[in-house]
Specification:
The protein has 378 residues and is mainly beta. It has two helices and 27 strands. It has two domains: 2-51; 65-375, TolB, C-terminal domain (Neuraminidase, 6 Propeller), CATH 2.120.10. Strands 1-27-26-25 form a four-stranded antiparallel beta sheet, with no helix packed on it. Strands 4-5-6-7 form a four-stranded antiparallel beta sheet, with no helix packed on it. A hairpin with a 5-residue loop joins strand 8 (125-128) and strand 9 (134-138).
Length: 378
């Protein structure tokens, strides 16, 4: 009893009744646990939650991009043979320049076969204008397929660049007038074509990469079959807003602004983004503009943008895909030479739609697709 009285004696006078003492001790214990629980919850939500283990079923990324299966190796019962271009049209369909099979293939975005179109010899690039006319280049010829036609028509054939140039080779100085005449018949190589993306009334404008003359030529089209060469929109040269052996062109609308993107075989200024109205450069020339640096690309063969105006470039020499910001800062690069799902062999075409990057893996006779790993359906 003395010990019990000693324990109670340490309490304040107001709690000397045994029943009340026991009740107050329980309340103190509850309040301590309540504050401890609040403290634990605060720590979890203010930082400790970062330690929660993440799911382990996220696909392995390729520097941010993951390949999508299956790989497209053919369409319409025919295997692809050297496909040089892939394009997403205004109609949302995928068009493939199946070069060595002399055809253009139309697929939906799931890869299901829709149709194939013939009439083009060795198609190297494919595009589509706002009225759903398909545009193709093959060698020195521009082809067009109107919406309701099943085959392409040859619309324009460029003259040979040396048609009017005769190289005179005298046998000797004395025989100056007894000469040998050599006519070089190297033909123009049209590498790519793209439409003016603005809605135009009664006509259409097209831009074509003339690789041989080192310029991008502007054409005007009047339906059904009149195409006129208006001369160089981007003249030859080694500076910004000029071209040297252009290989790819892409046009698009940024809000209400027409923008013009092209790439070329030149080792610097290989990729240029220009205003569509006056062809003024949009990417500043700064130390951070890696898109302009010599050595960034092996050979930039084709270009495209996504909905944020990030720029994608397919590099046929380095066997890579490069991604740049609108300011020309490199975001990432992926790919190497090979036949695996993350590898390329001389890729020549690139396209983008609905967060998917399409690559024409020319040397491996296939079309590969990639999606940003954070967008991939887990």
């Amino acid at each position: 009893m003395s010990l019990q009285r000693k324990s109670v004696a340490h309490l304040s006078p107001a709690f000397r009744v045994n029943g009340v003492v026991r009740l107050q001790i329980g309340a103190n214990h509850f309040m301590k646990n309540k504050y401890l629980l609040i403290l634990v919850l605060f720590l979890v939500f203010s930082g400790c939650g970062k330690r929660i283990k993440l799911p382990t079923n996220i696909p392995q990324s390729v520097n941010g991009y993951v390949p999508i299966s299956p790989v497209w190796t053919g369409a319409g019962g025919i295997s692809f043979k050297g496909p040089q271009d892939v394009h997403v049209g205004f109609d949302g369909h995928i068009y493939i320049a199946d070069t060595e099979n002399d055809r253009i293939v139309e697929l939906d975005q799931a890869g299901s076969f829709i149709a194939q179109y013939e009439g083009v010899k060795q198609p190297g690039s494919v595009s589509q204008d706002r009225l759903l006319r398909l545009l193709v280049t093959g060698g020195n010829t521009i082809y067009i397929k109107l919406k309701d036609q099943q085959t392409f028509d040859s619309l324009y054939t460029a003259p040979d660049i040396y048609d009017t140039t005769i190289i005179v080779v005298p046998d000797t100085i004395e025989d100056l007038f007894d000469t040998t005449y050599i006519v070089d018949t190297i033909a123009t190589a049209y590498q790519a074509i793209a439409p003016d993306p603005r809605p135009l009334s009664g006509y259409a404008m097209y831009f074509v990469c003339d690789y041989t003359r080192s310029q991008i030529v502007q054409f005007i089209f009047y339906e059904p079959n009149e195409l006129y060469n208006l001369g160089a929109a981007i003249p030859t040269g080694y500076e910004l807003s000029k071209a040297k052996y252009p290989t790819g062109v892409f046009t698009y609308m940024s809000g209400d602004k027409f923008r013009f993107l092209f790439c070329q075989a030149l080792s610097y200024f290989s990729v240029q983004l220009l205003e569509g109205d006056d062809f003024a450069p949009l990417i500043p020339r700064t130390d951070s503009s890696e898109i302009y640096w010599q050595g960034t690309f092996g050979l930039a063969d084709d270009v495209v943008v996504d909905e944020f105006e990030n720029i994608f470039v397919v590099d046929s020499k380095k066997n890579q895909v490069h991604k740049f910001s609108l300011n020309g800062v490199r975001i990432l690069s992926f790919g190497k030479e090979g036949t695996g799902e993350k590898e390329f062999k001389n890729p020549k075409g690139i396209a983008y739609a609905n967060k998917i990057v399409y690559v024409a893996d020319t040397g491996n006779n296939r079309i590969l697709r990639f999606m940003l790993s954070t967008d991939f359906p887990h």
